[in-house]
Amino acid sequence: MLTTDTYIGAYRVVSAIGESAYAETYKVKDERGKLYFLKLIDFSRLGREQYDDDGRILEMEISRQLRHPNIARYRDSGAIETDVRRCVYIVYDLIVGESVADRLAQMQCLTVNDAKQIVVGVLNGLKYMHSLPRPIVHNRITPHSVLLDLSRSVPIVKLTGFGSARHTGKKVSVRLTDDPENFYIAPETLRGESTVQSDIFSVGALLYHLVFGMVPYYMDLSSIKNDPMAILVNLANASTRPLRIPNIPNPEINEQLINTIAKALAPDASNRFRSAEEFIKALNGEIIVGRTAQVRNDMTFGGDTQQNKDRRLTKKTGNGFRDVAGMKELKEQLQSDVIDVIQDPEQAKALGISIPNGLLFFGPPGCGKTFFAEKFAEEAGCNYRYISCSDIASPYIHGGQDKIAAIFNEARENAPTILFFDEIDAMMTDRSKHNNVSESGEVNEFLAQLNNCGADGVLVIGATNKPEQIDDAALRAGRLEMKYYIPLPDEETRKAIFEIELSKRKSDAGIDCERLAQLTENYISADIKLIIDNAARLTFRRKLGTITQATLEEAIAASSPSLSPDVIKRHEETRDRFLGGKHHTTRRRIGF
Length: 592
What we know:
Helices cover 38% and strands 16% of the residues. It is an alpha/beta fold. It is elongated, with a radius of gyration of 34 Å.
């Protein structure tokens, strides 16, 4: 509306800055040449709720009251009238710097320390506003309403944009578009309510955005951008969904910060921080914030991918030990020591018996440790969960400990449960061999969870090719207390593997599995499975119809064992060392 060198009262327009739904902003100079920020408000665009009971413009009256280092300083105001428009203007100190929106556009997300400094500055301004004799709620805190004054060596946060500011309890209306910043609006503000907790929600959204580089509860509203009512409904429903915490590799992000953000963003205002001061104390670690059920923490639970769904706690069903070739001694031992206890808990309890806390399967790779654990769970008829290193890995301090605790808590709630930790040596590494505080904390968490977990109906099975790398404290009685070496399958077991695998496929009735076993000395279970797969491919390629003895022997001739004699010898030496050591309570050599 105004051009350069136009005068508004005593101020000369230097340049236009921007425009909103009801106002235009300019950079202006006074008669001494000092620069200011001027907001020109068009009366015709104001809503009734933007006036106070005496007909005065609320934004102007509120701006006049505010005097705080973290709030843009009011300097002057006035009115102008033209033939077509009646306007008022508010003059503020010009802030030399940039908005937080500008900063995010350059960097996408900030360091946690920088994000906290900005948020604490905003909260200090709000603490002042909320503590006035007639408390004032800002109602529209976004990255555009928070400026960074860069005129000094240390940036100073300045809160601006008081167009939606109201005294507590006063009705507020919001103009809704598909702008992502609408997700900063508290659920109750969408209903016209104005409370201190509404600002707490918006600051929580700001902190989330600064740390994770995205808006909380976000969904694409562009398809309904011309339908304000549909936007309102979607915004209202958005915060009822779990708050997603992205898995971003930032070691500064910890459980306290996540819980603080989640509390500030609680859909129910009564569950948020009671004041800006309490929010600040949480950010400073002066008060500890607990978890909230509203969080879907990708960092802690690994997201919602199909792989993670497949790895959640499930009831294993199948043929159990009938699918396992050989291993007769191990089957019998586990039947009496574990499965019978699980299946007859009353008798076991009368005798003061509970399932063991942990079992360790160790030996060369590819010999069936994982397969046996799954079939054991089927035989026992209890819940089962497979856990790999990635399921507990976390880029965050203490994040791995939280994951471990969550896994055991879920297992206890659904007992009896078998937890199978694959490559457990990488999860319970000898603490004397590393000085990483987080890794040591994860081992400590494992040890604490293992103590008496059997009494809670949780059985831990660990599998490893490198038992010597496991922390000694995990291998003592009361933790991974029963140990079984699972070597290469012997001839009898190899014969049984061929019989079981071939029974699942179309093959000749006269196949000599005993000869096949003799031809595959030092082959691991995985090698035998590959041989049968290769024979099946030859059969398919040649259109023979059924797998024959000849194709199987051809596949054997074209293959070689996965493990060299030196590797086999090294594993046998490990077996002798471990099962002969003073810390090892079970000495068994199990054939597979």
